[in-house]
Amino acid sequence: MIVNPMLYPHDLGIGQPGERPTGLGLGMMSAMTSGVGAAQDAVSAADREKMFGLVLELINPDQRESALLELSQKRENFPDLAPILWHSFGTISALLPEIVSIYPLLSPPSLTAHASNRVCNALALLQCVASHVETRTLFLNAHIPLFLYPFLNTV
Q1: Rounded (to 5) percent helix, strand, coil in the chain
Q2: CA angle in degrees (0–180, nearest 5) for 140-142-144
Q3: CA distance 143 to 106
Q4: CA 124, CA 8: separation in Å to the nearest integer?
Q5: For the segment 7-50, what is each residue's pLDDT rounded down to a tens digit?
Q6: Between the N and C ends of the chain, which has fewer C-beta atoms within 10 Å?
Q7: CA 23 to mean position of chain CA atoms
Q8: For residues 81 and 124, is the Cβ–Cβ distance under 8 A?
């Protein structure tokens, strides 16, 4: 018998598969980050709940695009977004396919505005993780910058 050691949000009581997270289940994520820092105190509880919901939406392919857009636009408003992205299940692994999926569009250049915006939003969230003092070393040790080399080799 194979046991899947991975837990999904719905396994933790955070909604049903494919369902938008609700405030009740998001309390678990709030508890996970209750001591993350004084900077988080400046963000209202409602804004934190919204941020946690958007982070959870990143792992759902149907909701990912809108969550990418909103999180990348508001990343400066959430000082502890990077640790939350890094430590949330499946979040980084959901961002990587966003980047890898456009590799074929880089050469020959055939990137559409829509695809460009989407990958830029994913890159903005990865930059947030890479630049945060708590997640910088974890990001580098995971060799995630290797996924960015194709962008540097374009002409």
Answers
A1: 65, 0, 35
A2: 70
A3: 21
A4: 25
A5: 444 444 444 555 544 433 444 444 444 444 445 456 789 999 99
A6: N
A7: 19
A8: no
